[in-house]
């Protein structure tokens, strides 16, 4: 098979620990399927600030640009939280999304049967929940002009939320296509009763909808969506929304699964290139102890295989291996009911590799 | 006692039905406590559009301006959903908030013991949940400049989110004061890792905090807060946040109580004037059937008594009467387990008045 280039970005906190296990899984698929991966590792986030003075070094960006996909651990931590803006890990995250043109963030929220009890929602409400939040990732209030000015009422801060038709079209098309390959239901979330960007969003969705007559479309206001996710999570299939709303709703959706240590995500642009990362953060409180759960990162590899490389069989195999290890009762501390029986990061990685 | 003027705005859908029951409760307190209320009724929302061509007629605004408090039912409905902006009920809502200077929206999310089962959250997670969301109501992206312009990528829409120090200070002081009279915990929610308005917000909160050394302060990012509300609702006391985040989080918080038909809200400005309304909407699907739950509106009267008039004894009495009617097993359709035993709107109102 053709060699695939993967940029590996361990990042901060538990990032390096969980990424190491995902790399074992990558290696195992070379052995099993004859794939060839060429990996380059880059500094990013807090560690990059410490070692190079910037959260997103040019060298790391170039490694990503010449790769077919990027695997990211996690970034950030209290150490850098009070830094000025240019020296914060999040600034690197926003920078890499923009520089790589990753306009779409795909966040599946699925229930792992064996972890249903970990959710704070009632099991009968969660039953059958399997949704994807498609979040616009390079527009909106995240990237609009920001500034301060003096007024008679003290300093004033301004953020600008901007969307043009093209930006809405490309993400909405992608969401319709994802829905078409699933349960054919698309929920577009906006605040069209208040925001001009939301009115443009809704008009654009309605203009595109006739091209997908097989997909059922509903418009839901963001405040109502925050409620409906709690009330009827299993009724959602694909949710598409703008950057800020997507940030909030995808985290709410992730939390209600009860499996936040298990969820992976993809950030995509045009074409097959993508950046893959676990939904959880860098968890500085447990970093370096060898107890972090590597499953979300391992499942991010499965997502990479499917979405960027078309390696569906191998992607399925990884997912099955994870399931079989969980079904056999193995748990890291975050998901263990009996914490005294919890296994560590490398043990979990090894079990999954063995199950493949 | 001095006469209090109350502007009564029934609005649309079930609004008139639930407001009628709240007015009975008002009357009952005149009898029991010797209060004197002078009420004026005004058109607002969809019905005002139909009858006067504008959602917020000048006459209604004047009735509110000369009142000591406003009691609002609910506004909106599908009939007006596709109207141009100036002819939409929501535009009236934003207009009345601004015109009356109601910069603070107080949304208690409490659990009614007898309704705990109605929540989709596990009862053991909900146990002890009793929080208030204090939402800034007249600033931010709701009221900033909005426009469209042509670009090479099609039309572009712009919304502007603006906050000045004064606007943040007044709402944050109010939230600290509310927290001081409760469990003394304040959670300020922002997105300071991305937004300039959020950085100004956080700086201002930190500047004010030393004036309230008895209140424990935490800063939580909005995406994380959407998660933590689900994971540990009972650990929150008072949450203070800007307009858009407050819209989303207060609805999420309301829904997790399982008692959305029971929650009241207050919108306050400087001084004791306030607008009181149920959290639920106009429910056009059940309007006119006499089955709507009037409890949230009745509890809005209790809130009005406490926050605008200082009538604490009467406010407590209303709350106790509601509780005793619920404890006796009476339910409207929305909260009944056995729907065949549900009682109607007026029956519920009469029972509460009788219990007083
Ligand atoms: C760290 C932050 C800038 C980022 C975001 O808001 O996009 C994070 O919350 C996420 O969702 O990936
Ligand atoms: C109707 C709408 C404009 C309003 C808002 O977003 O403020 C509503 O959702 C609310 O929360 O009162």
UniProtKB/TrEMBL annotation, chains A, B:
Per the record, the pathway is: Amino-acid biosynthesis; L-leucine biosynthesis; L-leucine from 3-methyl-2-oxobutanoate: step 3/4
Binding locations of Mg(2+): 223, 247, 251
Broad enzyme group: oxidoreductase
Q: Where are the transmembrane segments?
A: none
Q: Which residues form the Isopropylmalate dehydrogenase-like domain?
A: 5-352
What residues correspond to the site Important for catalysis? 142, 191
The positions annotated for binding NAD(+) are: 77-90, 281-293
Query: What are the recorded Gene Ontology BP terms?
Result: L-leucine biosynthetic process
Q: Does the keyword Metal-binding apply?
A: yes
Q: How is the cofactor bound?
A: Binds 1 Mg(2+) or Mn(2+) ion per subunit.
Annotated positions binding substrate? 97, 107, 135, 223
Q: Where in the cell is it found?
A: Cytoplasm
What Pfam families does the database record attribute to this sequence?
Iso_dh
Residues in coiled coil: none
EC number(s) stated in the UniProt entry for this protein: 1.1.1.85
GO CC aspect terms: cytosol
Catalytic activity field = (2R,3S)-3-isopropylmalate + NAD(+) = 4-methyl-2-oxopentanoate + CO2 + NADH
GO molecular function annotation = 3-isopropylmalate dehydrogenase activity; magnesium ion binding; NAD binding
Recorded hits in PANTHER family, A to Z, give: 3-ISOPROPYLMALATE DEHYDROGENASE
Oligomer status and interactors: Homodimer.
Its function?
Catalyzes the oxidation of 3-carboxy-2-hydroxy-4-methylpentanoate (3-isopropylmalate) to 3-carboxy-4-methyl-2-oxopentanoate. The product decarboxylates to 4-methyl-2 oxopentanoate.
Name listed for the protein in its UniProt record? 3-isopropylmalate dehydrogenase
Q: Which organism is the protein's source?
A: Paenibacillus hemerocallicola
């Amino acid at each position: 098979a053709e060699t695939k280039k993967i940029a590996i970005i361990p990042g901060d906190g538990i990032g390096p620990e969980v990424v190491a296990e995902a790399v074992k899984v990558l290696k195992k698929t070379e052995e099993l399927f004859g794939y060839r991966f060429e990996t380059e590792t880059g500094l990013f986030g807090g560690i990059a600030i410490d070692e190079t003075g910037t959260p997103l070094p040019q060298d790391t960006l170039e490694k990503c640009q010449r790769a077919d996909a990027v695997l990211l651990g996690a970034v950030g931590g209290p150490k850098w939280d009070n830094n000025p803006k240019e020296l914060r890990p999040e600034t690197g995250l926003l920078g890499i999304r923009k520089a790589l043109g990753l306009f779409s963030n795909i966040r599946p929220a699925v229930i792992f049967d064996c972890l249903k009890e970990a959710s704070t929602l009632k099991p009968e409400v969660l039953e059958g929940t399997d949704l994807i939040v498609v979040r616009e990732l390079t527009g909106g209030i995240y990237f609009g002009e920001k500034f301060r000015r003096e007024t008679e009422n003290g300093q004033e801060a301004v953020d600008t939320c901007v969307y043009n038709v093209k930006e809405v079209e490309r993400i909405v098309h992608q969401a319709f296509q994802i829905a078409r390959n699933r349960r054919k239901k698309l929920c577009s979330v906006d605040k069209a009763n208040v925001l001009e960007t939301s009115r443009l969003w809704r008009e654009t969705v309605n203009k595109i909808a006739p091209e997908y007559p097989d997909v059922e479309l509903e418009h839901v206001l963001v405040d109502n969506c925050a409620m409906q996710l709690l009330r009827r999570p299993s009724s959602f299939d694909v949710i598409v929304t703008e950057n800020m709303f997507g940030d909030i709703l995808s985290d709410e959706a992730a939390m209600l699964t009860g499996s936040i240590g298990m969820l992976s995500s993809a950030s995509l642009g045009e074409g097959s290139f993508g950046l893959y990362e676990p939904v959880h953060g860098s968890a500085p409180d447990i970093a370096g102890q060898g107890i972090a759960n590597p499953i979300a990162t391992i499942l991010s590899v499965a997502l990479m295989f499917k979405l960027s490389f078309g390696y569906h069989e191998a992607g399925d195999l990884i997912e099955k291996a994870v399931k079989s290890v969980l079904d056999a009762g193995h748990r890291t501390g975050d998901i263990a009911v009996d914490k005294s029986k919890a296994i560590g990061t490398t043990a979990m990685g090894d079990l999954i590799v063995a199950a493949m």
